[in-house]
Amino acid sequence: MISAHSHKTPLKRLNMMNGHGFVRTVGHVFENSPWVAERAFHAHPFTSLDDLYAKMVGAVKSASDNEKLALVRAHPDLVGKMAQQLTPESKAEQAAAGLDRLSADEVDAFNAYNDVYKEQFGFPFVICARENKKEAILAAFPRRLKHNPQRETEVALEEIFKIARLRLLDMIEEH
Fold first, then answer.
1. Helices 88-96 and 149-171, interaxial angle, to 10°?
2. CATH hierarchy code of domain 1-175
3. Which of 8, 31, 78, 128 has the greatest number of C-beta atoms within 10 Å?
4. 80: left (phi > 0), else alpha (psi -120 to 50), else beta?
5. What phi and psi, each to the nearest 5 degrees, are found at residue 18?
6. 77-96 burial, b for 16+ CB within 10 Å, e for fewer?
7. Per-residue pLDDT, 156
8. pLDDT for the residue numbered 3
9. Residue 12 pLDDT greater than 70, yes or no
10. With a threshold of 0.85, does the pTM exceed it?
11. Domain limits of the chain?
12. How many CA atoms are closer than 13 Å to the CA of 49, on its beta-carbon side?
């Protein structure tokens, strides 16, 4: 199991929590962005894990463009300078993709792509590392660099939603 949490919280218990407890439990599902959980909490109780996920995604989709950008910017770089400050979840996810075992050439390639990407879009490259190995991630850079900023923001958010779903599955059980 990839989670930084050793046991899962039952959905029933999550539904009993007040806003503070709820945010403390699932606030990190969206990287360094507890506001997503704060807004989703207003839609509790949740009937299922899918319902919880849908309400959290809904909180992001109904956020302002600036809030969406801030959410993308809350993510660490893959590899490189920013990767030193990873949350436990990000660290485990990047390790699953093999990003903790890169050759010097691969590190150089990631750093160069990260820099070009950030210059172009103004936010870090976000991809669901657990669904991709390092080769697939490197191959995604040139493809995504062809996007316009609006399209790439949408793609980054879709990847963030995949990450959030996997994190929720790690930490919440339906029964």
1. 100
2. 1.10.3330.10
3. 78
4. left
5. -80, 175
6. bbbbeebeebeebbbbbbeb
7. 98
8. 46
9. yes
10. yes
11. 1-175
12. 16
